[in-house]
């Protein structure tokens, strides 16, 4: 199901215990001269909706939140502060939970959001232990194998062969193929590579890392690779959601046992408090 397509009455009547909400989180950020600035948002939304098509009875996709913590230094990028990003996403999730729904899967499509998305899941799980996230799409075993199968050596970087292939699959006309350039980092050494790939961590503004705004080899991208990776990303996400459902069932069992124990303890305490006092012994 697509949340935005439903009426208020239809949402009210949904099975609140059964559904998993998938919340796509993207960004508006430069992706070199060959990809549109909404690349992250468009990819993560397409993967979410493709996954929903495979299991529409248990997945409901929220509208994509397209404003993330994006890098500056290039025309076109729009950023929000980490504090505002966390607060808005947290408020949306709490609004869903306040309606009686339980399970939220935060599907992030932009690397700059990731640490904050993990913070949000942590905050939610203090009161509602049913929120989960992953380190971007194609990040599991299946995703890794899929990347190897199409001959891509690296995981998602920026405006690279993966993102470019996926955009070719989603909307080939949006890719300016004549503008594609390869670039793999201005400052990298054997222990420093951008995007957390090395031991050294500098977290520099992106303009120090790339003249073109690209980090990767988008010239290797193909629509065929994108079609394959798009489907694999959806299949991987569906499997992760299934695992998430199994975890939530175990959590529900733990909570039920804990509640039962608390009730038993309260009843025992009340029984002790209401027990008649023993008569005092008379002095001999």
Descriptive labels:
single chain; 284 residues; alpha/beta; Rossmann fold; 7 helices; 6% strand
Low-confidence stretches: none
- How many domain modules? 1
As for the CATH topology, it is: Rossmann fold
Average residue pLDDT: 89
Q: How many strands, which pairing sense, and closed or not: the largest β-sheet?
A: 4 strands, parallel
The number of distinct β-strands equals 4
- Broad shape: elongated
In angstroms, what is the radius of gyration? 24 Å
Fraction in beta strands:
5-15%
Going by CATH, the homologous superfamily would be: Creatininase
Given helix and strand content, the structural type is alpha/beta
Would you identify the CATH architecture? 3-Layer(aba) Sandwich
In helices, the fraction of residues equals 40-55%
Reading the helices and strands in chain order gives HEHEHEHEHHH
- Give the CATH class: Alpha Beta
Count of runs of 4 or more consecutive helical residues: 7
Arrangement of strands in the largest sheet: 2-1-3-4
End-to-end CA span: 82 Å
Topology:
Layout: H1 8-12, E1 20-25, H2 39-54, E2 59-61, H3 82-98, E3 103-108, H4 114-127, E4 131-133, H5 141-149, H6 161-171, H7 223-274
Parallel strand pairs: 1-2, 1-3, 3-4
Helix pairs in contact: 2-6, 2-7, 3-4, 5-7, 6-7
